[in-house]
Amino acid sequence: MESRERGLIRPAKAGSLESNDLLVLAAPFRGELVITVKSVVQAQYGEHIEKLVREVLEEEGVEEGEISIEDRGALDFAIRARVKTAVKRGRESHES
User: Fold this and answer.
1) Which CATH number do you get for residue 64?
2) Which of 1, 16, 26, 69 could form a disulfide with 86 if both were Cys (CB 3.0 to 4.6 A apart)?
């Protein structure tokens, strides 16, 4: 699989720090997948959020990259949408 398909080619973000939303920062990081989750509900849902992010990245074929999540209580559908958008933006060339 080509590295562009496995990872990201540029930094990207999606979302906001508004209540009930999240900010996803995605960046190229060769050789591994690094996920950081910070959440206002970390104790209750931190592991669930990370698992959900990993599922979305697997669905999108992302095997390399650095993904940072700053969650403000977002629901699963919002987490999925924001991660997918950040990945899409991170795979676009500057010419797109």
Assistant:
1) 3.30.230
2) 26
Structural domain of 65? 3-91
Instruction: Report d(CA 1, CA 26) in Å as an integer.
Output: 20
24 found inside a domain: yes
Beta bridge partners of 49: none
CA distance 3 to 9: 9
Rounded Cα–Cα distance for residues 37 and 8 (Å): 19
pLDDT attached to residue 95: 60
Contact 76, 84 (CB under 8 A): no
Please say if the pLDDT value at position 96 is more than 80.
Answer: no
